[in-house]
Amino acid sequence: MVKICFICKSHHVFIEHLSIAKYLKRKGYDPFFIFADEYYEDVAQILKHEKIRFYRHSRNVFIENNNNEALNGNLNYFGIVKKLISRILPYRIKETISITKNMLRYKKVINNIFFKDNPNCLILYPDRSLGYNIPSAIIAKKNNIPVVTIQLGSQNVRFLAKFRMNKKMSGNKYLPTNLFNYLTTKLFPGNVLSIDQQNVLFFPWHVIITLFFLKMLPKNPWFLGQSFSDKYLMISKQYLLDDINDGLKQENVQVVGQLALDDIFINHKKADQIRKKILLKYFDEYHHGRSIVIMGLPQFYEHNYLGLNESKDEIKYIINAIDHNKNKTIFLSMHPKMSFANYDDLNSINNRTRLFEQEQLKDVLPIADYYYCFNESTLVWAILCKVIPVYLDYYDNNITIENYGGAIQTLSDKKNIKQDILRIEKDKQDIIDLMSVKNKNLPPFDGKSGKRIEKEINQVCMF
Hints:
globular; Rossmann fold; six-stranded parallel beta sheet; about 475 residues; 16 strands; alpha/beta; about 45% helix; eight-stranded mixed beta sheet
């Protein structure tokens, strides 16, 4: 049986990879997970229910499922010595020591698991981050195990670069404003991106030097799938074109779509049935005649952009503007990494607004008339579902909206939001007509993304 190993750095990556693992398991593969930096008890319950194997970090050792056998020895730090060192040494030296110690340890962990389980293919996301991702790719390459990176959403290189260029958010640690960073840009050009005539490092200089001497430095971390991956599976031709314009080399890239779009493709055909079920669940009645608005909540708090209360204030401002005529039903959709407990109080804004408890966006988006959001990935979903997409461009996300034609309604002045919403509602049919024009750069929307992903995995494994 073909074994597929998934490396999961966070909960939201697990949610995305789980769908792929379940699909592959139905096709006769043997998927298993390695949880790297974060672990949640609900994950164990899900995988046990799906009968999918996993390794998890518990009490400083890695164990398989719920067995007690340690696979890699103790991962404890040096206790008192560590605390003493952390108070004495400068930040960069402390981080260098920590990275060195951890990356070597992670390499040993993965090597032991791979020796025991011998996977046929490694799937990870991203292939450039510290933690277990880079060491797992290194071990896979050493053992001739093919590495596949699957794009999970839009990866805006310019947005990432501008975050690093923002001195308020990141200081100067990514900019060649000191001698060490400047020399690093010259010695390691693959870790440099030039944007708006400014060079930006992906990692600070001391991290790059550390990874270099550990022989773990990604070749081109600015672009997913360009450092260690044998194959990079992308969602759409438009994402590919955007990355090529920013410097991506496309030799190992294949556009396959997105597994979530297979679910949306099915749900789009059952939209009326799902709409009635959702309205009855959250309102105990069927609101015939009301427009349905779904708002994808921004991850301001989760990305440390704003505090939780500030983030919710931004959300409430948008909701109050949408709710101007009281003739709408508003649903709020969270990203998988967001906690329901943090946002539950949004249910009390008014009796027409509800926060989805369990439903993922892919399950409910087709029922909407309008979709408000702050990012590119799900805007594309809305276009495919013929749901009017409204992009709230108040936060300098660098999204190239013009690539998707005139259907996306871009709101860029918060002061005029109510007038803009009234205009959109007035022009509803004209906007829907714009979405009838086919755009070849949109993701494939045919219910066959899973088949394309499976085909690429088989090819890279040479089956």
